[in-house]
Amino acid sequence: IFLNGRYIRDRVLSRAVQEAYHPFIPHDRYPVCFLFLEVPPGDPRSARGLHLVLDASGSMKDRIGEKTKWEIVCEAARKLVAELPDEALFGMRVYGHNPSNPQKVDERETELLIPIAKLDRDRFEKVLVGLKPVGRTPIAMSFDRCHGDLDKAPARCRVLLLSDGAETGGGNPAQSALQLSADLNTLIEGYRYGLD
């Protein structure tokens, strides 16, 4: 698969091609497929990197079956990073790991732990292992701080939030995400775990 002339690995697209052509391919044949996709450079889908916003708030200690939400999110984050190409850009902002003020959420509760740069899987793992879910959930503030994170990035990145959901920092996450997307023409995605 080539996106704007650059080779990419994407399991979803690969699987879609396999499923589409499966009925037409004899069982003893193994064809090769080259898929060339063109997306305008200004389109958010042309992002060359991933900026992960990770929820390390206290509610991530809750369980879903045999595992905590934190264990599930860490597994998902590891899988995402493992699937990124070696040359991808990667950054990570974390919130909830550093509760600093028992009375109110302040700016220290969201922190850029890995500035956006060429992917360093060892650094990602070292940072992830050192995190403990303890604090609150300032999602909106984290999205607001992503402006500065992405402004310094060498190329466009999409933003992915892994969280169990509810904002506890007093902001409006949907409004902050829309503003971030509009200001920087960035694709914002989110996965929420364990919501009723």
Description:
- With 196 residues, this protein is α/β, with parallel strands linked by helices.
- 31% of the residues lie in helices and 23% in strands.
- It has five helices and ten strands; from the N terminus they run ββαββββαββααβαβ.
- The chain has helices at 11-21, 69-83, 121-129, 139-151, 173-184, and strands spanning 2-3, 6-7, 36-37, 49-55, 63-64, 67-68, 89-95, 110-118, 157-163, 188-192.
- The strands form three sheets. A five-stranded mixed β-sheet has the order 8-7-4-9-10, sandwiched between helices. Strands 2-1-3 form a three-stranded mixed β-sheet, with no helix packed on it.
- Strand 1 and strand 2 (6-7) form a beta hairpin.
- Helix 2 runs antiparallel to helix 3 and helix 4 (139-151) packs parallel to helix 5.
- The model has no long low-confidence stretch (mean pLDDT 84).
Write a brief structural summary:
The chain has 196 residues and is α/β, with parallel strands linked by helices. The protein contains 5 helices and 10 strands; from the N terminus they run ββαββββαββααβαβ. The radius of gyration is 19 Å and the shape is globular.
